[in-house]
Design goal:
2 strands, mainly alpha, 89 residues, two-stranded antiparallel sheet
């Protein structure tokens, strides 16, 4: 049920503001694949930040260290979190 609600919210957030890919709600790696064509509209630096964020999230997930705040956030928030993490090269 929680995943269904997250998917519905993801779709609604995209429909309500389809102009900016930073407003896409990320509920997991599937959303990156689902919205890949829209995410290509991000500038190169933002794509790099998003890629690093997702990579870190998936590594933590595989180690059983996935925290609540990693997904269910917008692309813009993920980019800013990555910038602020100090892990970006």
């Amino acid at each position: 049920m929680k995943n269904l609600l997250a998917n519905v919210l993801s779709e609604l957030s995209w429909v309500l503001d389809s102009r900016d890919p930073k407003n896409i709600l990320l509920t997991g790696m599937d959303d990156v694949k689902k919205y890949a064509s829209h995410l290509k509209k991000l500038d190169i630096e933002d794509r790099k930040m998003l890629t690093e964020y997702i990579l870190r999230a998936e590594i933590n997930k595989s180690r059983g260290q996935l925290s609540e705040g990693i997904y269910n956030i917008t692309v813009g928030t993920a980019i800013e979190k990555q910038r602020l993490s100090g892990l970006a090269h």
